[in-house]
Design goal:
There is one protein chain. The protein is an all-alpha fold. It has one domain (3-90, 121-145). The protein has helices at 3-16, 20-35, 51-73, 79-102, 109-119, 127-145. It is globular, with a radius of gyration of 15 Å. The mean pLDDT is 96. The structure holds zinc ion (ZN). Keywords: Membrane, Transmembrane, Transmembrane helix. The chain crosses the membrane at residues 54-73, 79-102, 123-143.
């Protein structure tokens, strides 16, 4: 999914689950689970996308995600826990970055790329964006209502 979707889920987990020993593993595991849902993201056609454009799009996506998550949930958890939850919810894709940008085709980057590649369920826009809006909104509502 987009870094924005992952950041929002990591952020709402920190905001609604006060215990980091539960929230952090949950935020970490949310990443591969969310990627199983059909989705679009900036890495959709990454092999054919110019590296500079891909990098720019990743940075915009991540910045947007962290900013939105902070506006919505940043006041509801200690800052370090909040940022930690977002970090572990994004780290899977961050660890793929050396494979994408530097062609580091060796472990652990190649393993993480392989894993991410296998579980990614790609879908074109608009469907691949709608699925994320529905799923992320649903997760936020459920966690907020519990
Ligand atoms: Zn991912």
């Amino acid at each position: 999914m987009t870094a924005t979707s992952h950041a929002l889920v990591g952020g709402v987990i920190a905001a609604t689950i006060p215990d980091p020993s539960i929230g952090l593993p949950l935020a970490a595991i949310s990443h591969p689970l969310l990627d199983l849902i059909p989705h679009w993201d900036v890495g959709f056609n990454w092999r054919k996308t110019p590296k500079l454009k891909l990098f720019r799009d990743c940075v915009i996506d991540l910045t947007l995600g962290v900013t939105l998550a902070y506006i919505l949930f940043g006041q509801e958890a200690p800052l370090l826990y909040f940022l930690g939850a977002i970090f572990v919810s994004e780290v899977w894709d961050l660890l793929e970055a050396p494979y994408w940008f530097l062609k580091w085709d060796f472990p652990p980057f190649s393993w993480i790329y392989e894993f991410g590649h296998r579980i990614q369920n790609k879908a074109k826009p608009p469907f691949g964006i709608i699925t994320q809006i529905v799923v992320v909104t649903g997760i936020i509502l459920v966690l907020k209502l519990i």
